């Protein structure tokens, strides 16, 4: 493994037709960082994560993983958790995880052999325990609380043993009380598995609580005649220490105006 | 006017005819339903996956079948095609082929709607896990679509079952055929067709009950809470 950054972005831009969503993104993220990403709705945070996952490709510039260009498709070194719809409602908890291992089967073996199936079971058991779902393995997602469903989504992502974990508002739909538990779970996994994490959130306190670094996406160039001509970029990139009580004064207003500042382009 | 149900059914010959006819109707409907479902899956998949030529052909086929009367399709299969292709099958086989073709078009349309109703987030989640497209379809889209569309497939099947009476027209000894035969012998039309009505209702409700039981056991995830 190289000593350089885990992930780097050089002058990355993303456009859809005439609409520029992101532009001039430059970033070096060292291995093991926990980057939280905040910004107005629609400014391209999810798009950025999808590019990191290779579900989208940059329109300009390039993104590197371990100093090499990103693979052209999602690979097992990167996992993602969405806000919702990432668990499969027609499968039990256990079968959700078995399906999540399908990538290995189809890519490497074609079929899983007896011994590897046994190993797969052991790994699924292990993951279920780690994530606190041991007693729910035969339940369907509809029988789980929102928090448990997100645990399952995280478990699915972790089965690939990713070195980079992408989280797109993973706790956005959860009650505040449950969120605190999920934060503990996530921080524990991050430390144990030594992953590099990118997490999008609309909750600025969550961003400060969890991150070792915060990235603020915002659209600073505006052309009133052509609202789609310019995209958002990273306007603040600050290191955090976990002891921070909360956002520094210059960012205190962010959480509140996050949803309105680019309302014109929505 | 007096009704004489007993007169018709005291003859065990007539009862047997009705029972056999009901059996033929049920068998052909079930056979046409099952094979039709398989064919419908191929049709719907080729359209959903936008397979170049096949997708277009499927679309045209579905439109063609759904915009022509079953009885014309039946005559075409039973009398038209054999002239062209030189085959000669028993009546029931012509009926089975025609019903299969007919059912498949209606099922295909329902399945296709089902495939498109699966939230794109499910596809993205599968892709993000690195699962191949074909596997995502087979293990995520298809089972969820069939579950979502099951009630529509169910009532479509019942509806189609009730239209199968037209196969009597090509000489298949189904339930309707049995009724027409008994009527022609006894001239007790009211009693005969009352009896047919009751038998069809009982059969339709039985199909419904069985299909519902299958739904509850095959798609537990939709009913658990
Ligand atoms: N596939 C696409 N085709 C066209 N436009 C797209 C596509 N994906 C995203 N966009 C547009 O790009 C912009 C950024 O979307 P994105 O989902 O990345 O925003 P976001 O910052 O994640 O927003 P939110 O906070 O609401 O989740 C939006 O205006 C969206 O409409
Ligand atoms: Mg988003």
UniProtKB/TrEMBL annotation, chain B:
Entry keyword set: Cell membrane, Membrane, Transmembrane, Transmembrane helix, Transport
SUPFAM superfamilies hit by this protein: MetI-like
Transmembrane segments: 22-43, 64-85, 157-180, 192-215
Residue ranges constituting the ABC transmembrane type-1 domain according to the UniProt record: 22-211
Entry membrane topology: Multi-pass membrane protein
Any Pfam family matching the protein: BPD_transp_1
GO BP, sorted A to Z: amino acid transport
GO MF term list: transmembrane transporter activity
Signal peptide from the UniProt entry: none
GO cellular-component term (any): ATP-binding cassette (ABC) transporter complex
Subcellular location: Cell inner membrane; Cell membrane
Source domain of life: Bacteria
Family stated for the protein in its record: Belongs to the binding-protein-dependent transport system permease family. HisMQ subfamily.
NCBIfam families: HEQRo_perm_3TM (TIGR01726)
Matches recorded under PANTHER family: ABC TRANSPORTER PERMEASE PROTEIN (PTHR30614:SF35), MEMBRANE COMPONENT OF AMINO ACID ABC TRANSPORTER (PTHR30614)
Name under which the protein is recorded: Amino acid ABC transporter permease
Organism: Flavimaribacter sediminis
């Amino acid at each position: 493994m190289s000593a350089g950054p885990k992930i780097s972005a050089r002058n990355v831009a993303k456009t859809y037709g005439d609409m520029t969503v992101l532009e001039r993104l430059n970033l070096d993220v060292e291995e093991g960082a926990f980057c939280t990403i905040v910004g107005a709705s629609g400014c391209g945070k999810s798009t950025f994560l999808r590019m990191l996952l290779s579900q989208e490709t940059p329109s300009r510039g390039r993104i590197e993983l371990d100093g090499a260009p990103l693979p052209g498709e999602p690979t097992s070194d990167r996992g993602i958790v969405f806000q919702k719809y990432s668990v499969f409602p027609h499968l039990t908890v256990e079968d959700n995880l078995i399906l999540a291992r399908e990538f290995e089967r189809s890519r490497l073996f074609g079929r899983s052999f007896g011994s590897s199936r046994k190993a797969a079971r052991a790994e699924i058991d292990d993951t279920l325990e780690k994530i606190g779902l041991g007693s729910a393995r035969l339940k369907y997602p509809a029988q789980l609380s929102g928090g448990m469903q997100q645990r399952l989504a995280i478990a699915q992502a972790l089965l690939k043993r990713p070195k980079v974990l992408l989280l797109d508002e993973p706790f956005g739909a959860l009650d505040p009380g449950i969120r605190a538990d999920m934060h503990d779970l996530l921080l524990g996994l991050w430390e144990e598995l030594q992953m590099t994490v990118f997490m999008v959130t609309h909750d600025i306190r969550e961003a400060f609580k969890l991150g070792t670094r915060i990235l603020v996406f915002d659209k600073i160039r505006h052309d009133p005649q052509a609202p789609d001509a310019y995209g958002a970029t990273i306007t603040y990139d600050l290191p955090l220490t976990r002891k921070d009580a909360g956002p520094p004064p210059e960012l205190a207003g962010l959480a509140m105006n996050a949803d309105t500042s680019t309302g014109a382009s929505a | 006017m007096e009704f004489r149900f007993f007169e018709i059914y005291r003859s065990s010959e007539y009862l047997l005819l009705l029972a056999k006819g009901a059996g033929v109707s049920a068998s052909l409907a079930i056979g046409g339903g099952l094979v039709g479902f398989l064919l419908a899956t191929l049709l719907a998949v080729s359209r959903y996956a936008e397979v170049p030529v096949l997708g277009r052909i499927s679309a045209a086929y579905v439109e063609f079948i759904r915009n022509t009367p079953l009885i014309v399709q039946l005559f075409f299969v039973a009398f038209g095609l054999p002239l062209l292709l030189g085959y000669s099958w028993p009546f029931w086989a012509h009926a089975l082929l025609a019903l299969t073709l007919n059912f498949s078009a209606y099922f295909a349309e329902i399945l296709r709607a089902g495939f498109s109703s699966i939230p794109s987030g499910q596809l993205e989640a599968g892709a993000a896990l690195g699962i191949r497209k074909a596997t995502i379809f087979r293990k995520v889209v298809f089972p969820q679509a069939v579950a979502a569309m099951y009630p529509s497939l169910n009532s479509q099947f019942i509806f189609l079952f009730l239209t199968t009476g037209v196969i009597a027209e090509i000489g298949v000894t189904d339930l309707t055929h049995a009724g027409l035969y008994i009527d022609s012998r006894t001239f007790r039309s009211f009693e005969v067709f009352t009896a047919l009505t009751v038998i069809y209702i009982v059969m339709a409700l039985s199909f419904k009950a069985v299909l519902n039981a299958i739904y509850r056991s095959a798609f537990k995830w939709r009913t658990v809470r």
